[in-house]
Amino acid sequence: MAKAPCILLDLKRRRKRITFEVVQEKCTGCNECINNFACPAFYRDGDKIKINDALCTGCGFCVQVCPEGAIRRKKEVEK
What is the band of 40 on the pLDDT scale with cuts at 50, 70, 90? Predict the structure, then answer.
């Protein structure tokens, strides 16, 4: 058994990841992101669509899927 933590695991923990957000002013509630894209990070909170950062992989495909351009890169965060 190793006495030091795995180097790859340490690199993964220090890596920054990209997250996305729904711009509520642009979102029309068309549900394209929920119904047709089917990403588990998207959810409805009342009449608003939101993205769960814990489930978002940071792939960015959702930006291309939204017909209203209501999804944007939020920021880089420490993982």
Answer: very high
State the pTM of this model.
0.71
- For residue 5, is it within any domain? no
CATH code at 52? 3.30.70.20
Q: What is the maximum span of the chain, computed from C-alpha positions, in angstroms? A: 54
Under 8 Å between Cβ of 62 and 37: yes
User: Are 20 and 59 within 8 A, CB to CB?
Assistant: no
Which runs of consecutive H residues, i.e. helices, occur in 1-79?
Answer: 7-14, 61-65
Q: Which of 18, 17, 21, 55 is nearest to 38 (CA)?
A: 55
* Residue 1 covered by a domain: no
**Would you say residue 11 lies in a domain?**
no
C-alpha–C-alpha distance, residues 32 and 62, integer Å? 10
For the chain, the domain total comes to 1
